[in-house]
Amino acid sequence: MEARVFKPESYLIENEPYYEPIGAEIEIFEAAYHNQLPVLLKGPTGCGKTRFMEHIAWRLKRPLITVSCHDDLTASDLVGRFLISGGNTVWVDGPLARAVRHGGICYLDEIVEARKDTTVVIHPLADDRRVLPIEKLGELLVGPPEFCLAMSYNPGYQSVLKDLKQSTRQRFVALEFDYPAPDLEAKIVHNETGIEGGISEKLVKFAQMTRNLKGNGLEEGASTRLLVHAAKLIMSGVNANIACRSAIAQALTDDDEMLAAIYELSASLF
Amino acid sequence: MEARVFKPESYLIENEPYYEPIGAEIEIFEAAYHNQLPVLLKGPTGCGKTRFMEHIAWRLKRPLITVSCHDDLTASDLVGRFLISGGNTVWVDGPLARAVRHGGICYLDEIVEARKDTTVVIHPLADDRRVLPIEKLGELLVGPPEFCLAMSYNPGYQSVLKDLKQSTRQRFVALEFDYPAPDLEAKIVHNETGIEGGISEKLVKFAQMTRNLKGNGLEEGASTRLLVHAAKLIMSGVNANIACRSAIAQALTDDDEMLAAIYELSASLF
Amino acid sequence: MEARVFKPESYLIENEPYYEPIGAEIEIFEAAYHNQLPVLLKGPTGCGKTRFMEHIAWRLKRPLITVSCHDDLTASDLVGRFLISGGNTVWVDGPLARAVRHGGICYLDEIVEARKDTTVVIHPLADDRRVLPIEKLGELLVGPPEFCLAMSYNPGYQSVLKDLKQSTRQRFVALEFDYPAPDLEAKIVHNETGIEGGISEKLVKFAQMTRNLKGNGLEEGASTRLLVHAAKLIMSGVNANIACRSAIAQALTDDDEMLAAIYELSASLF
Amino acid sequence: MEARVFKPESYLIENEPYYEPIGAEIEIFEAAYHNQLPVLLKGPTGCGKTRFMEHIAWRLKRPLITVSCHDDLTASDLVGRFLISGGNTVWVDGPLARAVRHGGICYLDEIVEARKDTTVVIHPLADDRRVLPIEKLGELLVGPPEFCLAMSYNPGYQSVLKDLKQSTRQRFVALEFDYPAPDLEAKIVHNETGIEGGISEKLVKFAQMTRNLKGNGLEEGASTRLLVHAAKLIMSGVNANIACRSAIAQALTDDDEMLAAIYELSASLF
Amino acid sequence: MEARVFKPESYLIENEPYYEPIGAEIEIFEAAYHNQLPVLLKGPTGCGKTRFMEHIAWRLKRPLITVSCHDDLTASDLVGRFLISGGNTVWVDGPLARAVRHGGICYLDEIVEARKDTTVVIHPLADDRRVLPIEKLGELLVGPPEFCLAMSYNPGYQSVLKDLKQSTRQRFVALEFDYPAPDLEAKIVHNETGIEGGISEKLVKFAQMTRNLKGNGLEEGASTRLLVHAAKLIMSGVNANIACRSAIAQALTDDDEMLAAIYELSASLF
Amino acid sequence: MEARVFKPESYLIENEPYYEPIGAEIEIFEAAYHNQLPVLLKGPTGCGKTRFMEHIAWRLKRPLITVSCHDDLTASDLVGRFLISGGNTVWVDGPLARAVRHGGICYLDEIVEARKDTTVVIHPLADDRRVLPIEKLGELLVGPPEFCLAMSYNPGYQSVLKDLKQSTRQRFVALEFDYPAPDLEAKIVHNETGIEGGISEKLVKFAQMTRNLKGNGLEEGASTRLLVHAAKLIMSGVNANIACRSAIAQALTDDDEMLAAIYELSASLF
Description:
41% helix, five-stranded parallel sheet, 2 domains, alpha/beta, Rossmann fold, homohexamer
């Protein structure tokens, strides 16, 4: 009942993570990787960017070190800091320095959420210098060829305040992600949960209905992940309509009218 | 006269907390729990969300570690920090790491009050990775199946600034809570305080009158909790009208006209 | 000529603080106290809320630990922090933990001035759990029955930014305070200063005139406290008009026209 | 050529500071002091508030501990903090605690500049409790009768953001200061610098001209202090017009047209 | 697979970095260097400013210490700080002090992103005093003749908030950079990637088309760096149109219509 | 090739810094100094204020301790702080305390950039008390007669937010600086660079043309310093027009039309 504990740089993904490609994304990522170019993943929440990175890390046999970015993430959080131990200070690499030092893949999730100092700290790593200055150590780390920098964001959320600067963007090869085509999505829901095909198709149809509401009262439509949630509840014996309400509708919005409309959509299907 | 002191992870709730279900919430929570999906509780203040979590923790026989979220809650407050002891630094798990490590239920109350870094720190715990990176330790905790993440908020308070991001929401199974139906609410007030049925019914009627004023001068109507307060004062010998004023009316608003209107409502009942 | 020094939790008020009740406030507070419900005091500055709390603490024979809230009051200021001593860190309870641990009365003065994290830290103490999580110690304090939480604010100052959240308000039994009726107020001024009845009545009349100006150029009228100040200066031989100017008029406003009007009011009385 | 170094609480003013009273301010301050009431000094810059406090401190034979308030002054700056020395932490009283502990006069200059936590920390000292809670020590200091709290501000600068709260103001006896009458001001300039009467009168006339421009392009007129500056430069051999420009006109404003107008005023006098 | 680690002040560039001059920039930089004047580089992202600095550092045989500026870069980050080691504090030079002390070139990249304290800390280094006060050490460093200060920014991004103060600008000799002329740019792309001339010319033509869209929906056109990225992907076997999409179009914008327009441009060329 | 290192308080200027007076500034500064009055220097960037202070320091044979003010300069940065060394804390004077303690000249450059706490910390030093309270030491430093406080700012930049408070201004004798008259300026450029008179006169003419553009597209005209830069580049063999572009035009503005206009001006002269 206790948690298992790992060192991030030695946490290799052992089993192939299930991933269905939707275009040339695997080929382009591998070409960028071998040319030592950093990669930017764009796309809505829950469409598979994180799973893609796990799949790539498995293909390339490199540890994947993921950082969820946020407003308060400092450069020190990425690069590292001194900690006091036994009266001495001991340097502890942050996840970025850890990836550079051990030739891993550093994946900065939702990079536009980060403060400017985070995005700037990656600049010398994201051009052909591939160096990380660790000013507190007075050190320059030169990334080995195996080191790879990737980051993601959701262009739909981009505000003026949280825009990626051109001087950052123009260092990356960019991949666009979106929800899979209906057949593929139904297959994914089935593979992830074991639910029968008919229900997974209805769930995909339901998701598409909500995606059409995007911009008309919904900030975002249901992601593939939410379909998987609903399918799991159904597999556990929860009534399909109730599962759609809890796992999908209530997860999408708090607006009473919108909720009523979405409930009707699910009731028309199940 | 001294306080009793516990370790949160070993503070199991021994006696069944009194809880009256208002729908399928117990069934859905248990299905989500067994599928290792995180749960989001939505509803107004004082309607029983905290009591529900205590009831669930008792049913699942897991320790319940609650964090009241606020503006200044940092990721370190959740994850943990180093403290100096005897010249060495000692790591102290925050409540979230404590729950992950010991397979408890971590309940983040009023999550929308938290800063963005708090909401983001739970992302890798709230999808199928179920990992908590503790960057200061250079550790990855992988949550055991018993670990459960739950959080709550009141959609009525949601402002643009304090909105839950879609990338956060779309990781959770969501349960909607509301005030119980009148009969049930009167039964609850009676059970909690021992007050006679007639008075508890009047208190519920009074609460409903204030709830109708929501949006017409009142930010929120009287919660079930306030009815329990008033009933307790009455049981201690305070006049029913004075109890309604102190425990309900004055707790709801400072507006003189509104107070006068509410006093009239209570005077018409008692 | 040196200050006397006390531990807050052992500073019991020995002599009955002079307090004239204006309603059922003592009865309600005691009922709330015995039901372990927290209490909220509302009312303008200088009308006797602090004196009331001293009186209650004396009645209940509990230590009164007062915290003047402000913008920069952190949760740590209330709960406690580690200090380094002899190479080790020593935990020092903040005033709230001190009151919980020793079963005292914790009185948070002007709570709306506090940051949100302060108001949220009291939530688990202010419902039927009555627990204070001390996250830095990894401890849960369960308040003994003697522990009592009270807080005050002035509804007249409440701004949108500094509003008490419903989820906070709806945990408290609320008591409304106001200036005493004229006879009572004159009696209070006399009892506090020894000034003769005629002058204390004139001072009360003067105060009422300034209270009528509230909203018409004055933010607030003269409090009972200011009348006591003026009476003390007069008892020390200062001319009554000059005392009213310094102790009352100049303490109320800086506006030249307003001051001239108030000077005329005092000149018409003395 | 090295600075002399003192402990603030033992720095008694030995020689009577030259001060010309402009009203009953000395009498009122002494009455407030003996009634243990705090005092608030209001008035424009450079009109003698600081000198008055030095004079009062000399009269009362108490040390005067002055704090220049500003935006970033924290409660800890006033109350004190722990410092590490020889591996242990040592408490160092701030100026306020120092004055309470040793029965001195604490003078908070330009209090409205202070953050709210500064103004609130003085509340329990500024009513009849006269206590200073030092939360980091877990101590309550009870001020001896000799302790006195005074503060000043310039009502002309008061903005909405930097207003004194009524709950603060209504704890103080307030004294209003202004520039002295012409004869008195000329006498002061003469006494401070030794300049001949004819020139000091002209300087006062010049100052009055600039004071008439207040609100018509000048934020503030020339203070008595500036007249003393000009007189000192003249005594050192600087031409009177040039002295007026450097010591008065350029110190008042940067506006070229305003400066030309003021230069003409001084040229008409000297 | 491990990173190589260097001391910044001893990391001399050994091989001539490939750089094609576009004007007199090398001559002017060297004249400024020998007159001990600081230099400011202006120009759009990815046009070669960083490469120019590497080329200059190689020519002058001085170490190049680069700092990527950002909002949160403090003066201490530049100048240095004390770190605790073995119970003592040890001073660690920041990159600026490191460059002054060892006579290196300090290059502040995107200086307008820095906080004001960063730009001000360089003032005494950027005039004829050439000193760096290190206040925490109580030291003044006088820069040797070999020390050189350079900084860059992109005038296109300059906002009112992030403007270089005249008191900063007017200390620097300024060099303007821009994209190279088409022939030169095609030559650069060829030299950097080995791609055949025809394709590099088409890429330059494509870049120019995007540059014409600047201000008409694009914040910035494609930089030379992006052409190099696309050429590298093509050399790795990625289809030219797909390479243009990922390496150029998606790196420039997220706008769907803009992307469609740019895709058409690339389709017309490849 | 290594930097030379000094203690600021023992860094006396040995050789007379070249300075051409433009009015009575030397006489007034010396009169203020001997009357122990603080001095305020006003004027545009690069017109010689810093050089004037170096000249004055040389005349008065006092060390000159300069602080470049900025937004993030704290009171501690000026006054000093404790540092840990060998397990003990050691006090390190800031530049202001250093100047007071050793009777030096403290020059606060661009004082309006400083936070309010910086400007307020100098108040007791800038009136006839001439004391610096060091609250963390519990010490009062009384400045010796040799101590002198000076500060500068550029009135042209003064915004509402960054205005000097009257309570600060009205403590200083103020000196106004401006660009020297043409003949004098040409002489200065010649003396600083050795450039022949014809060219230095043309440079001055060019500077005046740009100064006429102030407010018509230029924020500020070319300072004397920029003329010296251009002359140095020309002396190093750079073409005069190119030197004017890099050292003057590009240092003044980024606006393309403005730059074209200024280039024409220089082309008409050289």
